[in-house]
Amino acid sequence: MLLCGALFLASCSSANPETDDSPSEAESRLTSRSEVGLSTLGPISIGMTVDQLARAAGVDMVRQPDFEEAMEQDNCAYMSPATIPGYVPPADGDNKSPIAFMIVDDRLARIDFLDRTFTTAEGIGVGSTEVEVLNAYGGGQSPPPDRGFIGKPYRYLKASPETSEGDQEYRIVFESDGAQVVKYYIGKLPEVENKNGCERELNS
Questions:
Q1: Are strands 107-113 and 181-188 parallel, antiparallel or unpaired?
Q2: What are 41-61's pLDDT values in tens digits?
Q3: What is the pLDDT of residue 164?
Q4: Is residue 127 predicted with pLDDT exceeding 70?
Q5: What's the distance, CA 85 to chain centroid?
Q6: 200 in any annotated domain
Q7: Phi-psi region of 178 (alpha: psi -120 to 50; beta: other; left: phi over 0)
Q8: Is 6 within a domain?
Q9: Listed residue (32, 159, 56) closest to 108, CA to CA
Q10: Residue 199 is assigned to a structural domain of this protein
Q11: What's the distance, CA 13 to chain centroid?
């Protein structure tokens, strides 16, 4: 379903800490205040090579333990920044990083946002309600929950806020627990719609 040319709905499985960076410094490297776009996070752009990603971020990267094996078998694996200037992990959180980079074909295909640190230009992020997502990206009703899931009715709200012809292959996907966003992704199709990270099954 397409709502106001912006939001697709399908059933399926923040404030930022202050830093001492000046605006020019914050824009030239990854920080907790980097802006989220349809295909960008601060200086980082979807489609960058692994080397370009590391240089743009300006911080060390940590690869998932079986990164090389995963790339050989599935051509897809994750890496995360070791540190992010200005980021303060929540006291009760178990994530070492608030973001994770999906690498496919040795290029950045998607960015996963795992806590409230980063929000979109519309002010939407982890913790936003489904109503807030719908209002920000076109309005409408939430999709029915995925009955195949045990526990909370997880589902995706998929936004395509296109600003130019080149944006057509990109999406923002918000994963909801039935009430609010628990994580979200930006990236290119089809990887941005993968239900379970590097697993190839897509949302329907």
A1: antiparallel
A2: 999 999 999 999 999 999 999
A3: 64
A4: yes
A5: 19
A6: no
A7: left
A8: yes
A9: 56
A10: no
A11: 16
Max Cα-Cα span within the chain: 48
Q: Total structural domains in the chain?
A: 1
Query: pTM for this structure?
Result: 0.81
Measured distance CA(50)–CA(21) in Å, rounded:
25
* Residue 47, CA distances (Å) to 1, 4, 121, 172, 193 in order: 28, 28, 21, 15, 16
Q: Which residues contact 184 (CB under 8 A, 6 or more apart)?
A: 112, 113, 120, 124, 125, 126, 172, 173, 174, 175
- The Cα–Cα gap between 57 and 139 comes to 34
To the nearest whole number, what is the mean pLDDT of the chain? 80
Better pLDDT: 140 or 78: 78
Instruction: Using the Cα atoms of residue 136, residue 142, residue 145 and residue 146 in order, give the sign of their dihedral.
Output: negative
Cα separation, 125 vs 119, in Å, equals 5
Q: Which residue has the higher pLDDT, 89 or 43?
A: 43
- Pick the range with the lowest mean pLDDT from 3-17, 34-48, 113-127: 3-17
| Domain range for 113 | 2-193
Of the CA atoms within 13 Å of residue 144, those in its CB half-sphere come to: 4
